[in-house]
Amino acid sequence: MVASEAQLLIDLLETHAGLDPDPRRCWSQYVTDRMTDRREDLWQQAAETGPTGKKLVNACERLLAAHGPATLPAGDLVHGDFRPGNILLHADRVSGVIDIEALGSGTRVLDCATLLSAHDITPEAVQMLCTAGARVAGPGALAYYFAHVVLDLAVFVHRRSLRQGIQNVSTLHEHVLRLLNHTDGA
Asked: Distance between CA 105 and CA 186 in Å, rounded?
């Protein structure tokens, strides 16, 4: 993902502010539960994927330690799987968004964090998404969501033996370190 694509997606996510489609399906509550009450499950599952998973868990621990606890706001429309493969771009515009079964409430910061996990994202796009996510809910919330996204992704691709996904998990560690550097200055 390049900077021009990131800007299109950030602009789209900004239109989701305040569009709370179903407070009973709240991503902010789900992620908070998964990262606090059930934290050990997700972190252990990610670590059990192998040495790369262990490095990823350690990097996520450092990322969250750098920001402390975060409060995850609600009230926005959240796609829940806002990845480049689920976004249709045509002629410098977003022409569609697919795979919406995870749609719910929460904060659009989750969708920013999901975009940050793309394996082919440029440094400029990272900076833009970090700035946009931090502007909405602060760098701590962005870090919290990002840790959830990358750990969950590592477990997902490992369980399903998705060859390309497993190869790309090693780049998630680099993404965490990059996000740590960007959110420190945000």
From this structure: 25
109-168 pLDDT tens trace? 999 999 998 888 999 999 999 999 999 999 999 999 999 999 998 888 887 765 555 455
Full residue range of the structural domain in which residue 17 is found: 3-184
Tell me the residue length of the chain: 186
CATH of residue 14's domain is: 3.90.1200
Report the DSSP beta bridge partners of residue 97: 87
Q: How many domains does the chain have?
A: 1
pLDDT-based confidence at residue 175 (cuts at 50, 70, 90): low
Q: Which amino acid is at 133?
A: G
Confidence (pTM): 0.88
Which letter, b or e, does each residue of 76-87 get, where b requires 16 or more Cβ atoms within 10 Å of its Cβ? bbbbbbbbbebb
